[in-house]
Structure formats: structure tokens, C-alpha cells
TrEMBL record:
PANTHER family: ABC TRANSPORTER, OLIGOPEPTIDE TRANSPORT SYSTEM PERMEASE PROTEIN APPC. This is ABC transporter permease. InterPro entries: BP-dependent_transpt_permease (IPR050366), MetI-like (IPR000515), MetI-like_sf (IPR035906), OppC_N (IPR025966). Its main location: membrane. It comes from Paracoccus albicereus. It holds the Pfam family BPD_transp_1. It is found in: Cell membrane. Residues 118-317 form the ABC transmembrane type-1 domain. Residues 1-15 have a biased composition (Basic and acidic residues). Keywords: Cell membrane, Membrane, Transmembrane, Transmembrane helix, Transport.
Length: 331
């Protein structure tokens, strides 16, 4: 390097140093309590809970729903009567100390059968809801994010929406009832069949809701910025898309529980649900139809529990929808 080139290089370095000025000094201090450094990230959920608490109907429904859950889960450990025990001598008794809610036509304790039947009905509702929400969310995200998959997946969704659901459920139960009962046993086979049938015919609404939200998210600035730096599609969906569509998924999940409970009760009421020795709320209704004029409480009690559970779940879903809507939460 010649003397002239060396001098020019020194002049350029001096000019850069003069124009750059002193380096900025950060005045941001580290958090005093690192454990609570993420409080701001949890403030959104606090706002959601605060808005949910302001919804009186949703709070009352939540308390009642928790009471129903405790009734069907802890109740059998407190009231230990066998729901399948047949006592012909005690058949058709009223409200007594030995049988607080009476007995049925075979002398089986109604309180124990309501507890066990509620456990089965709610388990069917929760499991079918998880299956339907998982399938619907997957199809909705894929349809909304990948343009080439949008048309075929939406045509599939519209096809399922056009099918008559109750005849389809009856056909599925009729075709697969015996094979699954032989493979997994009467109770587990029917449980898997009903859960699969309800889940496979209940995912369409959640898929369309999630697809609409994903289509809107694709045009947001943070999504476009993530795409510009080459974020792969799986990471984009898991880190940016799914967290932002969690609100409609949770609302659809709460409403899906109510739909699944009603559908299972309808199938059991038609005699196509669980076997007679495996009580559910719908099966209790079916068994009491013939004697509903003489013993109306046998129809009123399971019908009241079904209605109360479905009403509570619907109110909870309504409260979640209002709480997770940022336009309402910001008021």
C-alpha cells in the first residue's frame, strides 16, 4: 500500500468517526425481579378473566357447571350404591333415606345411576369435542394458509355440511356397532363409535371459523415480516397463526361440548347408544319413557341435568366470546 493510499484510508476513518458521533448508551435497567419479568405477557389473560367475571350469566354458569362436574366425579365416592344392582323388592320406590331419588322399574338406585350416567355423558362430550376441534382447526388452518388447499378442503367441508347428520349418525352406529363391540367390548366399543361419529360430523363450523381468521391474519404486518425473513410454514403456523386463532377455537370448543352431549343423549334415547346396563343420561330417559306418566321424576331428573349442563356450557361459551373479543375487552 502506497503512502497516498494509506493517507486516504486514515482520512476516511476520521470522517466516519466524526459523523457517527458517540455510541448511544442504553438507559434501560434490568428488571428488579426476573421472576415477574413476564407479567406483561400475562396481562392479556388477566384482562380476559376480568371481562369474563363481569359476565354475570357466565360466572353463574361456571359455578353450576363445576357443581355438575363434582356431582358426577366425586359423588360416586360419597354415595357408594351400585348403579347396576337389581333389587326387585325395592322397585319403583319413591324418595326414601335408602334411595334419596327413588329406584327404577328394576330396583336400581336412581341417584347412583344419574351420577355414573353423567360421568359417561360428559366424557363423551369432552372427547368428541377434542376430536372435532382438532380436526376442524387443522383443516381450517391448512385451508386458510395454503391457497392451493383452500378449494378442495372447503368443498369437502361444504359436502359434510350438506349431509343429513342424524341419518348419517344412525347409519354409522348401525354399521359399526357390532364390529367395535366385539373388538373392544360392549361399553368401550360403543364409546369409541359414538365419540368418533360425533367428532367426524361436528368439525365443519370450527373449520370455517378458523379459516376466516387465518385469511385475515395472513395480511397482517407481522406475518408479512416473518415471511420476508424466510420463516418456514410449519414454524409460521405454530408460532404466529395458531396463538392468534386460539380465541375462536376455545369458544367453539365450549359450544361443541353442548352439541356432543345433546347428540349422545339423542342416540341413547333412540336406543342406539350404550347398552342397557351402562347408564347415560340419554339412556335413563329412554328407559323411563314407558312409565313417564306414572313416574315423571325419572324423566325430569336426567332431562334437567342434560338441560342444565348444556345451558351452562352455552353461557360459558358466550362469556368467553365476549371476554376474548379485544373490541369488547378494551371498553
Amino acid at each position: 500500500m502506497t503512502e497516498t493510499e494509506r493517507q486516504q484510508r486514515l482520512d476516511r476513518e476520521e470522517l466516519v468517526a466524526e459523523t457517527a458521533g458517540p455510541a448511544p448508551v442504553s438507559t434501560e435497567l434490568p428488571p428488579d425481579d426476573p421472576v415477574h419479568a413476564g407479567e406483561e405477557t400475562r396481562s392479556q389473560w388477566r384482562d380476559v378473566w376480568r371481562q369474563f367475571r363481569s359476565h354475570t350469566g357466565a360466572m353463574v354458569a361456571l359455578v353450576l357447571f363445576i357443581g355438575v362436574i363434582l356431582f358426577v366425579t366425586i359423588g360416586p365416592y360419597i354415595w357408594t350404591a351400585d348403579p347396576a344392582y337389581v333389587d326387585i323388592l325395592a322397585r319403583n320406590t319413591g324418595f326414601t333415606a335408602e334411595h334419596p331419588l327413588g329406584t327404577d322399574q328394576l330396583g336400581r338406585d336412581m341417584l347412583a345411576r344419574l351420577m355414573v350416567g353423567g360421568r359417561v355423558s360428559i366424557a363423551v362430550g369432552l372427547t368428541a369435542m377434542i376430536l372435532a376441534i382438532t380436526l376442524g382447526s387443522l383443516i381450517g388452518v391448512l385451508s386458510g394458509y395454503f391457497r392451493r388447499l383452500d378449494a378442495p378442503l372447503m368443498r369437502l367441508t361444504e359436502l359434510f355440511l350438506a349431509l343429513p347428520l342424524l341419518p348419517l349418525l344412525l347409519l354409522m352406529v348401525t354399521l359399526f356397532r357390532e364390529p367395535l363391540s366385539q373388538a373392544f367390548g360392549p361399553a368401550m366399543g360403543i364409546f369409541l363409535l359414538i365419540v368418533s361419529a360425533i367428532g367426524a360430523t361436528s368439525w365443519m363450523q370450527s373449520a370455517r371459523i378458523v379459516r376466516g381468521d387465518v385469511l385475515g391474519l395472513k395480511e397482517r404486518e407481522f406475518i408479512l415480516a416473518a415471511k420476508s425473513i424466510g420463516t418456514p410454514a410449519p414454524r409460521m403456523i405454530l408460532r404466529h397463526i395458531l396463538p392468534n386463532v386460539l380465541s375462536p377455537i376455545m369458544v367453539a370448543a365450549t359450544l361443541g361440548i353442548a352439541t356432543a352431549i345433546i347428540t349422545e343423549s339423542a342416540l341413547s334415547f333412540l336406543g342406539l347408544g350404550f347398552p342397557p346396563d351402562f347408564p347415560t343420561w340419554g339412556r335413563l330417559l329412554y328407559d323411563a319413557v314407558d312409565q313417564m306418566q306414572m313416574y315423571p321424576t325419572r324423566v325430569i331428573l336426567p332431562g334437567l341435568l342434560i338441560s342444565l349442563t348444556v345451558l351452562c356450557v352455552n353461557y360459558i361459551g358466550d362469556g368467553l366470546r365476549d371476554a376474548m373479543d379485544p373490541r369488547i375487552r378494551g371498553r
